[in-house]
């Protein structure tokens, strides 16, 4: 199931290692995650539910759901989607709730390594990278942490070229933007980067802000700074339908991670649910990887994504069925079929219009919701804003939340494009340095320029609803 050829990508795999799944040896490569290696070996069921013991498989692939929790070297609740393989690793499916081994000692923060910086940035995607680069250029020391094994966030799986202006990487593929920004970050000596590091809480202690984190599932780290930028991105949405928990049902981003980041095919035949830009782009990325796309179903009466993407998909022979939805997935341990139906004017399935697709993958491209758990825990004001994808942190024009010194940027501030995430990251990084008195007034022009670029990018038809949402998310008078 590993890809050896791709029209756009070249997969540089590390040293071959052996991991053991239920005692069975599995070939893997250094740099892959556990879930990736298991998928390449055809293993889909990663754990079983607590109550009905139903199989669960990979869903988000970014560590934000519980679908891939496994027992690794005797330790339960390990997120297989973001944990890199190690030679000799022993892995088992997790059956419901699991207990730590009797001899296991959980990390204690009194033994934590302490890292100090002016600004602590949580998240190494497009927003976090831009925030770190510009905060560092403005004179601040920066500590950036990300729970994934590599920087770039959603960029590392995007093979399409970006729209917009040259200054916002127009015409450049997301995977290349991730490399450019990562290389830029490494040039700055006042930035420390911590990968495989999960933030678990934000607290205030006198004049310092604390981010408690765990590195590589076992090493406690305490980050101390005077300002924090939360750029934690978003997580995949699901929709209700029968058997929507079967292995083989993925969020769109998980499929992109498998294919475009690690070079592993998710399956052979795919049904996509959702005809927004993500669903349309995913369709031709699947075809590039040699996967058959049976159809795209969309509940709305018209395609939600850009016409250029829809036209490309149709030219490739993929039917787009508007006013249709998925009724159920069929299969025992994994997806074997999908049943869809046409919808009436009241969004109800029309009897007699059912159709069955023989597929082994169902891709849900039904949107994202902001990841704001850390912001809520830190006491930041939150509002539900439909236009921005759900609950978001209240903030001002400098991306500062209602808790002074805590900033937000990117999809965690509202679901938009990677371009807007980068611009918001730039604003937040410079603003944090200004708030701390590190940056000079000349940096105000940089913020104004980024705000103007945001307004221009959002001025199109797809940005109007976002602008309405941003008004609702702004601090009154901010």
Automatic annotation (TrEMBL):
Query: What InterPro entries has UniProt attached to this entry?
Result: 2Fe-2S-bd_N (IPR042204), 2Fe-2S_ferredoxin-like_sf (IPR036010), 2Fe-2S_ferredoxin-type (IPR001041), 2Fe2S_fd_BS (IPR006058), FAD/NAD-bd_sf (IPR036188), FAD/NAD-binding_dom (IPR023753), Metab_Enz_Cyan_OpOx_G3PDH (IPR051691)
Q: Which PANTHER family match?
A: ANAEROBIC GLYCEROL-3-PHOSPHATE DEHYDROGENASE SUBUNIT B
- The residue ranges crossing the membrane are none
Name under which the protein is recorded: Sarcosine oxidase subunit alpha
Q: Single GO molecular-function term?
A: 2 iron, 2 sulfur cluster binding
List the Gene3D superfamilies.
2Fe-2S iron-sulphur cluster binding domain, sarcosine oxidase, alpha subunit, N-terminal domain, FAD/NAD(P)-binding domain
The answer, when asked if Nucleotide-binding is one of the entry's keywords, is no
